[in-house]
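Project outcomes to date are best conveyed with an example. Our students and postdoctoral researchers have been running inverse folding experiments weekly, and each run begins with a structure described purely in tokens. The record below, which covers 325 residues, was selected by the lab manager from last quarter's runs and is presented without edits.
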């Protein structure tokens, strides 16, 4: 028996587009709609009437639950989700969990109460619980961080490799005591970036501190490293919000980035090219993460039986003057 995925493949469109075309949605381009109808006829595909009626009880709204709305990475990710969702006839509600598991849980409850069609979620950590979403059949796609112990759709970035590349870049530019500032233990992105750094410098030579993904915590952690008997001469910093705190710490100690100490920061925030010297960054494809996640979610809404998919994107090192001696 043909599935909606088969029709999408034959027509060269997403499963969400197939669903909307077969349901007569006016948001579908007429040419695409005709292509979908032809593919469905050729394959002998007939929508499941009961499932379709159940889906119509849901709203054409997606919930996007992110862990920190102030982080430019999540701003770009949200734009990617919204752009793809809008072209498919869905609206997006943005929820900021603020790295707080209780707040995240409350937003999940709201998503269920409002009968959203699906959820894109950046999990706060190991405590994330999406059992209620799964029990009620609400599709969910994890972004940036996987759902611990759960097999499902997810879109990640290979930040361990990116951290290794950034650390090697600093060593290759003549720095000898490279330190690392990363996020909380148990948060996948923080652990992966630390692991990538250790992969290059080795465990015995590792100089690192953890803090919340916040500027103030990073400032204090950076001061601890800078005040050590043998302080680092370069730092890899796990995100752009933390980097603001690191720059404040350097200013307190009278150190100049790119002159007295090398800096590489994760995430290419808009301000990173406006300071002197401009920051070398690990640019993550945040917008693409959002678009791919939205596409996976709409595909899951259109066909709940499809196999779970994990998409891992690559980050890119952009060299500027903060990592040159």
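After processing, the design step wrote out the following sequence:
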């Amino acid at each position: 028996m043909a599935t909606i995925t088969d029709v999408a493949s034959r027509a060269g469109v997403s499963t969400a587009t197939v669903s909307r075309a077969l349901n007569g949605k006016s948001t579908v381009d007429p040419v695409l709609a005709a292509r979908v109808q032809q593919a469905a006829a050729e394959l002998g595909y007939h929508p499941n009437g009961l499932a379709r009626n159940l889906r119509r009880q849901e709203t054409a709204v997606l919930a996007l639950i992110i862990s920190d709305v102030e982080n430019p990475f999540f701003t770009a990710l949200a734009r990617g989700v919204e752009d793809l969702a809008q072209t498919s006839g869905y609206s997006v509600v943005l929820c900021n969990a603020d790295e707080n598991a209780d707040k995240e849980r409350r937003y999940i409850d709201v998503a269920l109460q409002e009968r959203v069609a699906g959820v894109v979620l950046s999990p706060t950590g190991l405590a994330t619980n999406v059992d209620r979403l799964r029990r009620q059949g609400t599709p969910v796609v994890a972004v940036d961080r996987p759902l611990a112990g759960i097999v499902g759709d997810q879109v990640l970035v290979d930040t361990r490799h990116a951290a290794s590349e950034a650390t090697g870049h600093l060593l290759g530019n003549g720095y000898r005591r490279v330190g690392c500032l990363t996020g909380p233990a148990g948060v996948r992105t923080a652990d992966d970036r630390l692991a990538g750094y250790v992969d290059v410098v080795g465990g015995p030579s590792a100089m690192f501190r953890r803090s919340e993904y916040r500027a103030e915590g990073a400032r204090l952690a950076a001061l601890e490293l800078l005040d050590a008997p043998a302080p680092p001469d370069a730092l890899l910093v796990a995100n752009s919000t933390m980097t603001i705190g690191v720059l404040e710490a350097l200013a307190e100690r009278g150190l100049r980035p790119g002159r007295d100490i090398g800096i590489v920061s994760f995430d290419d925030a808009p301000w990173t090219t406006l300071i002197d010297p401009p920051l070398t960054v690990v640019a993550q494809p945040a917008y693409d993460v959002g678009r791919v996640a939205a596409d996976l979610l709409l595909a899951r809404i259109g066909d709940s039986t499809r196999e779970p998919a994990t998409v891992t994107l690559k980050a890119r090192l952009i060299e500027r003057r903060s990592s040159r001696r």
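The first helix runs from residue 4 to 11. The mean pLDDT is 90. The training component of this project remains on track.
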